[in-house]
């Protein structure tokens, strides 16, 4: 074929008549083009053979400078297959993603016309290329002298290309006397860039930074390197793949002395270089900060070689269907075979040869070389032997194997390591068979093995100590081969660049790679999907309670997940980041200037802190400075003695309770400092200054510098509280839009998709069809839609191939309930998941994973004439970024911001009888008619009762109830009137260690009552007195001692004469009881007499001491009303009641259900003239009576002794009106008040 000179027309034209069509149509055909010299090829155009049925539908390209050591064209980390023609006349053009720089191009047909033969007309487009080349032999080094002896360089641009067969060697090196350096070197065929812009003398700031790129760079092909540095920011580009990083330390300049060297280390550096080798190979186009180094060297006519010698290696590339057969000596008593190989597979057959009476096999097994020898002796007896050597040989590097068997022993040497050679005895003489197979695929015709074809490269094959002439093999002069590629090694490192995201560990075989995501916080085929929610707010909406959680604010973005504390007890959620400083840390170790520096760390990065503060509505951090002879801020106009450093290393001289630019403390703002002449208490050497820092753009505090601790007697203690942030300013979780027309849509500016793309959103609809979103790019598209009311489909384009995934839901999706869609596409697979349960996973095509080119706008809804989505959509995220549906919906016809109807999907999160209330951007739980509190009505409300403590709740007469109806709507507490109860449900939890005692007493101030008591032995008893019974109806529930200090839950439900009791004891056993009254009575609570005195005598001495919680009678929660000061209710409390949940576990017992609604109350109102009220008494009712009697007795006795003159007291004034003597002292003694206040602080004597 004559030389082919490229042309550069602006548009492709028909390539003329004729064309190339080989005589044989098979996979061994190729067309080679000689460009005359090295050219830069940027595009290829193909056509079928003129006026024929011959064309090439798929093809590959190889290129070389010397017609040897061919290299396949790669794209997306794969040997690229181009789409060709579908007829003989059409013209197909491909712009190369990366230009080919070579003299020779080979066109390799892969698929062709089914009705004809291989045929092609082609043109290559490009331009001329020329560069100076320098050859390095490992001894010569080029030193480039800098313009001055010492250079402080803030910006560097270095460019070079290199080519080598050696895996180790220094390409460039420069250093300075202050410890700065820059070095670029090959290590195990990978390129490592090391930079140090300076470390300080104490070593606290380490400047060393090292980044590795590439793999298999000893392939004797040209590789381009570009290093761009501006201050600490570096772009490191190898073969069009760029890594961006920032150097360690705090210095910006690279301080170099005198010179920078290329090809190795200067002689002056070598003694301390640690055995680093010089580069062996070729470089071209070396430029340093605009200076062409290769051109300068050439002009000075240094004693160097300005050409690149050809390599003598001849590689053979094996796939899973390849083998190679070579001849050797037969009937020889010596077997000697050696070869070099490289592969990623842990298993594969390297060599097989038949002996005169047996066989020998050399294989790679789990990364080790194994040798099997089997010989049949004369008497039909078999002798076999197995031995192995090496490990981890499937690392993609070149490894050598040498097997030598002669006389009575065999030797196996791996990687030329004679010291590790394996030797073994052979009991018999072997005779060679004369034929050697390499690669293994021939075994499909052999009955002894079904395994392990070798996939990889071989070179330097020796048989009988002679180098095999593989060029003669290529020409058909010796041996034979099948489906191998000669004079090339097409090994591809699928882990470089690493497609495992977020630190996932990549491993590979010849065909694919896999990611180990353990410990990364991410999951999926490429470790792309975060395992955690983006904020505490999202955990709350999942029904989680307060605690410690991992959050990932940017989801699948680059920010790593981190742990925070989430406080979800209120309507707003607090996110807390703790620091390392203990409260009241003593300030010591002042420096020579008299300043003490305290570093505050948070175990998170600055970027992670910023992700919390930037999305929060409000942040705060508590700071406190306790002092003695240690001033804080000085005057507003003076230089502050103490300051703190916040975000971005900015210095601030205001303190808690104040604001930016105001050098005052909280007392200075509020004008209540101890010394009014100062604006901080500590500036007068008194007390403490404390408060909240709330300017969130300055937070968190990272350092505090205390400047007044060197005076005699100076002492100070510092407290820096955790950073606390509240609210989700971006409101991502409920960011929603409603689509009211199938023709409506929202559109967003174009964005560029990534290799891995994830999409998630929630939707609710009553429609059966609709397009959720689509993006119709110039070469790629993405489309998600609902079909048939039960199917969600996800379709996209990869490398010109359309893929579609569909997930079918067993329940309708158009039920106006919220459903979640999650879709992900990455380099290995595509995943579509619905409602976190139903999913489809499909592998993606191996090529075409260049970053998606979404040059058109993203449409939420349908813009292409299809039926758009009708309904609500919220929380749309693509690659961790939330799209503002509400903001975009404002002013868009047919789309409204927000969405109603959240309770239809989330009411189940409102627990324990809480009512779900709709909000514009979410929902809330109304807990007013429950005994619980908190955002989901799951927080226990209870109290600790001491001896004599009493809580009383009165059911008001009809007039009172009517008067309080309006108040009910304001306070959220129902206040029912008097009633005859024919059914009730009583629920509560308790814990106590004392018995006997009365737990709950419900009465109408008559003989009708319900009492729950603990008997002397701690067992539970229920007592009903209804309708004038002579004796109360008594139920002994269980024989266990429940006065054991553990929490227990009780549920008592009565409907007329039927009683059901449910008891949950502390260790999880649940007891059920059902009872029927034996008498035909009017079973309702009515007024007939007085309180049962037997209860006082038997069960209430000394009275209940312990905890009660979750107390609820029908829709009334009396204990909650007593403990919540903002609730208006007919409640009274005597004694000390301390809030506590009593250690009760979350409620797991479902409410007792009867045939009718147990929450329904049938009321029979008394006439107003009755003037009596039903009431509920809690444990201290009788104890209060006894306590009062005892007090009277003590008073009488004291009075008697006073008159006799035998007892005297200095009781404080006011004791008569106080609850006890202690209370009187507190009220009347000012010093006691001051003592209590000051005891909370630590003072220095």
Structural class: mainly beta
The termini sit apart by 102 Å
> What gross morphology would you assign?
globular
| Beta strand count | 83
Average pLDDT score: 80
Low-confidence stretches: 1-14, 444-450, 958-978, 1076-1090, 1146-1176, 1180-1186, 1199-1245
Residue fraction in strands: 35-45%
Tally the helices.
14
Helix percent reads under 10%
Query: What profile does the largest beta sheet have?
Result: 8 strands, antiparallel
Radius of gyration: 43 Å
Quickly list its features.
1245 residues, mainly beta, eight-stranded antiparallel sheet, 83 strands, 9% helix, disordered N terminus, disordered C terminus, phosphoprotein, Contactin associated protein like 2b, transmembrane helix, membrane, signal
What do you see in this structure?
The protein has 1245 residues and is mainly β. It is 9% helix and 40% strand. The chain is built from 14 helices and 83 strands. Strands 22, 24, 29, 30, 31, 33, 34 and 36 form an 8-stranded antiparallel sheet that branches. Strands 52, 54, 59, 60, 61, 63, 64 and 65 form an 8-stranded antiparallel sheet that branches. The N and C termini lie far apart (102 Å). The relative contact order is 0.06. It holds the Pfam family Laminin_G_2. It is a single-pass type I membrane protein. This is Contactin associated protein like 2b. Residues 527-579 form the Fibrinogen C-terminal domain.
């Amino acid at each position: 074929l004559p030389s082919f000179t490229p042309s550069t027309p602006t548009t492709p034209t028909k390539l003329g008549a004729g064309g190339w069509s080989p005589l044989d149509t098979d996979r061994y055909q190729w067309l080679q083009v000689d460009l005359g010299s090295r050219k830069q090829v940027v595009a290829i155009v193909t056509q079928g053979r003129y006026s024929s049925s011959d064309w090439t539908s798929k093809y590959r390209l190889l290129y070389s400078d010397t017609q040897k050591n061919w290299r396949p064209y790669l794209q997306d980390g794969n040997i690229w297959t181009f789409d060709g023609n579908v007829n003989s006349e059409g013209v197909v053009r491909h712009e190369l993603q990366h230009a080919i720089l070579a003299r020779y191009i080979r066109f390799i047909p892969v698929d062709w016309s089914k009705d004809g033969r291989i045929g092609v007309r082609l043109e290559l487009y490009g331009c001329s290329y020329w560069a100076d080349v320098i050859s390095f032999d490992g001894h010569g080094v080029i030193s480039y002298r800098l313009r001055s002896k010492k250079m402080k360089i803030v910006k560097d641009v270095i460019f070079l290309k290199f080519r080598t067969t050696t895996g180790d060697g220094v390409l460039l090196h420069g250093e300075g006397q202050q410890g700065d350096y820059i070095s670029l070197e090959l290590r195990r065929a990978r390129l490592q860039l090391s930079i140090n812009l300076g470390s300080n003398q104490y070593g606290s700031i380490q400047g060393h930074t090292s980044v590795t790129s590439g793999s298999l760079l000893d392939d004797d092909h040209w590789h381009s390197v570009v290093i761009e540095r501006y201050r600490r920011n570096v772009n490191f580009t190898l073969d069009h793949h760029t890594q961006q990083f920032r150097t360690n330390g705090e210095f910006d300049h690279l301080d170099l002395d005198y010179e920078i060297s290329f090809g190795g280390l200067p002689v002056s550096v070598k003694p301390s270089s640690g055995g680093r080798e010089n580069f062996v190979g070729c470089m071209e186009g070396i430029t340093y900060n605009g200076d062409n180094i290769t051109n300068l060297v050439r002009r000075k006519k240094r004693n160097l070689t300005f050409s690149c010698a050809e390599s003598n290696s001849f590689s053979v590339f094996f796939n899973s269907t390849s083998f190679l057969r070579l001849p050797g000596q037969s009937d020889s008593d010596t077997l000697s075979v050696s070869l070099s190989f490289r592969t990623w597979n842990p298993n594969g057959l390297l060599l097989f040869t038949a002996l005169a009476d047996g066989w020998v096999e050399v294989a790679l097994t789990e990364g080790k070389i194994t040798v099997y020898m089997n010989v049949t002796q004369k008497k039909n007896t078999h002798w076999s032997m197995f031995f192995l050597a090496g490990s981890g040989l499937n690392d993609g590097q070149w490894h050598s194997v040498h097997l030598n068997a002669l006389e009575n022993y065999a030797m196996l040497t791996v990687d030329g390591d004679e010291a590790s050679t394996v030797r073994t005895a052979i009991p018999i003489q072997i005779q060679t068979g004369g034929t050697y197979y390499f690669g293994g695929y021939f075994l499909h015709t052999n009955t002894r093995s079904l395994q392990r074809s070798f996939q990889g490269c071989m070179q330097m094959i020796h048989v009988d100590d002679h180098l095999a002439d593989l060029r003669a093999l290529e020409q058909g002069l010796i041996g034979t081969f099948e489906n191998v590629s000669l004079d090339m090694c097409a090994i591809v490192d699928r882990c470089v660049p690493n497609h495992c995201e977020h630190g996932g560990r990549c491993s590979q075989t010849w065909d694919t790679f896999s990611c180990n995501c353990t410990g990364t916080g991410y999951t999926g085929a490429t470790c792309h999907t975060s395992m955690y929610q983006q904020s505490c707010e999202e955990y709350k909406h999942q029904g989680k309670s307060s605690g410690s959680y991992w959050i990932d604010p940017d989801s699948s973005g680059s920010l790593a997940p981190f742990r925070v504390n989430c406080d979800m007890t209120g309507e707003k959620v607090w996110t807390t980041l703790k620091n390392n400083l203990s409260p009241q840390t003593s300030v010591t170790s002042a420096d020579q200037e008299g300043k003490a520096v305290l570093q505050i760390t948070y175990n998170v990065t600055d970027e992670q802190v910023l992700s919390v503060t930037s999305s929060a509505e409000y942040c705060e951090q508590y700071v406190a400075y306790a002092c003695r002879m240690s001033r804080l801020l000085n005057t507003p106009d003076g230089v502050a003695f103490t300051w703190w450093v916040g975000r971005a290393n900015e210095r601030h001289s205001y303190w808690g309770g104040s604001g930016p630019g105001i050098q005052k403390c909280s007392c200075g703002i509020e004008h209540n400092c101890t010394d009014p002449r100062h604006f901080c208490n500590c500036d007068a050497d008194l007390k403490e200054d404390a408060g909240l820092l709330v300017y969130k753009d300055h937070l968190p505090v990272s350092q505090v510098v205390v400047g007044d601790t060197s005076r005699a007697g100076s002492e100070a203690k510092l407290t820096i509280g955790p950073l606390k942030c509240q609210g989700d300013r971006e409101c991502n979780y409920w960011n929603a839009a409603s689509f009211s027309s199938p023709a409506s849509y929202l559109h967003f500016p174009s964005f560029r998709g990534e290799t891995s793309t994830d999409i998630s959103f929630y939707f609710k609809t009553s429609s059966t069809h609709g397009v959720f979103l689509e993006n119709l790019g110039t070469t790629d598209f993405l489309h998600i839609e609902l079909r048939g009311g039960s199917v969600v489909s996800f379709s996209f384009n990869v490398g010109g191939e359309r893929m579609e995934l569909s997930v079918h839901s067993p329940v309708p999706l158009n039920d106006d309930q919220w459903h979640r869609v999650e879709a992900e596409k990455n380099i290995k697979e595509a995943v579509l998941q619905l409602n976190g349960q139903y999913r489809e996973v499909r592998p993606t095509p191996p090529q075409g994973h260049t970053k998606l080119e979404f040059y058109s706008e993203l449409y939420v809804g349908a813009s292409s004439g299809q039926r758009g989505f009708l309904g609500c959509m919220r929380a749309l995220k693509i690659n961790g970024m939330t799209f503002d549906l509400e903001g975009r919906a404002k002013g868009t016809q047919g789309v409204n911001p927000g969405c109603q109807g959240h309770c239809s999907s989330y009411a189940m999160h409102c627990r324990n009888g809480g009512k779900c209330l709709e909000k514009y951007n979410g929902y809330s739980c109304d807990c007013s008619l429950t005994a619980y509190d908190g955002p989901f009505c799951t927080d226990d409300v209870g109290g600790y009762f001491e001896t004599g403590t009493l809580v009383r709740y009165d059911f008001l007469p009809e007039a009172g109830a009517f008067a309080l109806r309006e108040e009910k709507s304001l306070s959220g507490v129902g206040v029912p009137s008097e009633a005859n109860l024919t059914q009730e449900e009583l629920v509560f939890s308790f814990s106590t260690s004392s018995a006997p005692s009365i737990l709950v007493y419900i009465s109408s101030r008559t003989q009708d009552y319900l009492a729950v008591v603990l008997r002397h032995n701690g067992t539970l008893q229920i007592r009903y007195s209804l309708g004038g019974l002579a004796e109360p109806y008594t139920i002994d529930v269980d024989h266990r001692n429940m006065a054991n200090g553990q929490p227990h839950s009780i549920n008592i439900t009565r409907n007329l004469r039927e009683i059901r009791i449910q008891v949950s004891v502390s260790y999880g056993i649940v007891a059920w009881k059902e009872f029927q009254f034996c008498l035909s009575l009017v079973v309702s609570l009515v007024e007939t007499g007085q309180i049962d005195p037997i209860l006082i005598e038997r069960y209430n001495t000394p009275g209940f001491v312990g905890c009660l919680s979750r107390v609820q009678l029908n829709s009334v929660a009396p204990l909650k009303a007593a403990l919540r000061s903002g609730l208006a209710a007919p409640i009274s409390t005597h004694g000390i009641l301390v809030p506590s949940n009593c250690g009760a576990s979350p409620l797991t017992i479902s409410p007792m259900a009867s045939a009718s609604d147990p929450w329904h109350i049938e009321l029979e109102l008394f006439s107003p003239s009755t003037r009596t009220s039903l009431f509920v008494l809690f444990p201290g009712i009788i104890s209060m009576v006894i306590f009062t009697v005892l007090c009277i007795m003590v008073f009488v006795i004291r009075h008697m002794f006073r008159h006799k003159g035998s007892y005297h007291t200095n009781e404080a004034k006011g004791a008569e009106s106080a609850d006890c003597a202690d209370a009187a002292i507190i009220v009347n003694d000012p010093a006691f008040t001051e003592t209590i206040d000051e005891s909370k602080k630590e003072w220095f004597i």
